[in-house]
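Dear H.,

Thanks for agreeing to be a second pair of eyes. The structure we're designing against is below in token form, covering all 488 positions.
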């Protein structure tokens, strides 16, 4: 090695190494390798410059200055070569997505630096290093005691690197802290939390705690959510409602499948554990929020109670028709064109029969092609009506309605309806409407005409405003009304 350093080919070799590192630096996008390559290039250039200075001065410099210059360029140049080789080796062995931990690079570099410096110093100054080591035993003991914590962190970091419970970039949980691993250093490991905070955990403490790694092998990660509902709700019904809700959340994986378990009988409720899987654990909190939000609306619509704390006093639940006062619900029905033909007492009957439903933003209210026997009036919020191809036909707000064709004719849903924002709807079923036909014989004919006009309007929008004839459609709807409700 020393003969190679002292040869005349040194400058040519240093120039070739600088060109090679510069080429790799330009071709790669790896920030760690680019940083190491820049450091190696600086060291090689500095060592070559000191060597050139020695050759230029020649015999003009003598004694201690000459020896110091010779030892200096040898050490600097050897450091540059070591840094270059280590950088290239780590670039080849590490994966493309997971860089080598900083502690590994530092330990390898420092070890090789010390060995190279000892060899050069011993050769140039003819030193006996064994006596130096023996004489420093006491100093080593003192330093070891003084740096006990620091050395503990260092060796703990080395053990973590050897066992590899996590790597840079992994999402982990350590005790009460969780986040993404930014760096595994000499003294500590740094995590970045979801709040963009950087937490520094000493390595010796980290090695003693349980570490949960959520990023190994790009496998799906399970997330557990617990809910408690009333004893009045049958467990199988609760599980079905939860399954339907989870199926509507886009980020939840279909495989492995989500499932719900009856977990415990508590004082005032039954506890359920819901487990679903996500591809990226960094989105787990977002998915958990969406699941719990959707479940509140769905359980509310299904009349499944989420009990309050035992110490909380609350009144009995109001009847289903409560929410808006009767006068307000009757006024709401007055905005619906197909019910304007009704008398006041008939609208009051429908107002009492309506059930208030809550839908959260993004929830599907109706699915195109599905069967249904319910009709909805928008009390607040906005809903979007879309076709199976995803084309938005219209948006409905207060006083507007949908679902009337399925209610009155039994046809499948003709469109998909999604809540654009949190919305309150009033639901009316077939039984509530059927009683009106008994006391209002001409209602069926009037409703069939209005429904035919409404359908033709929607068809005109979907078919580039081409209006078909309305009389056959009105007659067909009237025939269906008579068939379903048993009208003469």
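And this is the sequence the design step returned. I haven't edited it by hand at all.
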């Amino acid at each position: 090695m020393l003969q190679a350093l002292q040869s005349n080919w040194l400058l040519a070799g240093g120039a070739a190494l600088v060109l090679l590192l510069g080429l790799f630096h330009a071709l790669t996008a790896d920030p760690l390798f680019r940083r190491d390559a820049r450091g190696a290039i600086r060291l090689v250039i500095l060592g070559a410059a000191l060597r050139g200075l020695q050759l230029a001065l020649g015999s003009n410099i003598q004694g201690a200055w000459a020896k110091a210059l010779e030892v200096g360029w040898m050490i600097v140049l050897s450091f540059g070569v070591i840094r270059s080789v280590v950088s290239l080796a780590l670039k080849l062995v590490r994966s493309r997505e997971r860089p080598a931990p900083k502690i590994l690079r530092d330990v390898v570099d420092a070890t090789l630096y010390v060995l190279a410096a000892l060899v050069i110093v011993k050769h140039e100054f003819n030193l006996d290093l064994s006596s130096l080591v023996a004489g420093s035993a006491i100093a080593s003991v003192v330093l070891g005691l003084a740096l006990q914590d620091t050395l503990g962190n260092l060796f703990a970091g080395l053990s973590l690197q050897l066992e590899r419970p996590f790597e840079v970039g992994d999402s982990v949980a350590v005790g009460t802290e969780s986040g993404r691993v930014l760096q595994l250093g000499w003294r500590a490991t740094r995590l970045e939390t979801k709040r963009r905070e950087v937490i520094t955990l000493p390595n010796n403490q980290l090695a003693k705690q349980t570490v949960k790694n959520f990023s190994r092998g790009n496998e799906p990660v399970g997330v557990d959510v617990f809910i408690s509902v009333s004893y009045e709700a049958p467990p199988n019904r609760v599980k079905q409602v939860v399954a339907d809700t989870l199926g509507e959340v886009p980020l939840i994986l279909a495989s492995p499948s989500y499932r719900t378990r009856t977990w415990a009988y508590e004082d005032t409720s039954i506890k359920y554990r819901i487990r679903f899987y996500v591809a990226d654990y960094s989105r787990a909190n977002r998915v958990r929020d969406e699941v719990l939000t959707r479940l509140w609306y769905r359980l509310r619509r299904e009349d499944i109670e989420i009990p309050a704390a035992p110490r909380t006093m609350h009144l009995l639940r109001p009847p289903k028709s409560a929410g808006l006062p009767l006068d307000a619900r009757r006024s709401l029905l007055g905005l619906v064109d197909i019910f304007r033909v009704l008398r006041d007492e008939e609208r009051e009957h429908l107002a009492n029969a309506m059930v208030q439903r809550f839908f959260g933003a993004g929830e599907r209210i109706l699915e195109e092609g599905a069967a249904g026997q319910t009709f909805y009036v928008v009390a607040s919020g906005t809903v979007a009506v879309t076709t199976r191809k995803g084309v938005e036909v219209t948006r409905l707000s207060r006083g507007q309605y949908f679902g009337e064709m399925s209610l009155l004719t039994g046809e499948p849903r003709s469109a998909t309806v999604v809540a654009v924002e949190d919305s309150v709807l009033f639901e009316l079923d077939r039984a509530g409407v059927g009683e009106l036909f008994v006391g209002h014989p001409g209602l069926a004919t009037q409703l069939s005409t209005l429904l035919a006009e409404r359908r033709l309007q929607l068809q005109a929008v979907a078919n580039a405003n081409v209006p078909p004839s309305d009389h056959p459609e009105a007659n067909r709807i009237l025939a269906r009304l008579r068939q379903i409700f048993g009208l003469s």
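Two observations from my side: The radius of gyration is 38 Å. The longest helix spans residues 63-93.

Warmly,
E.
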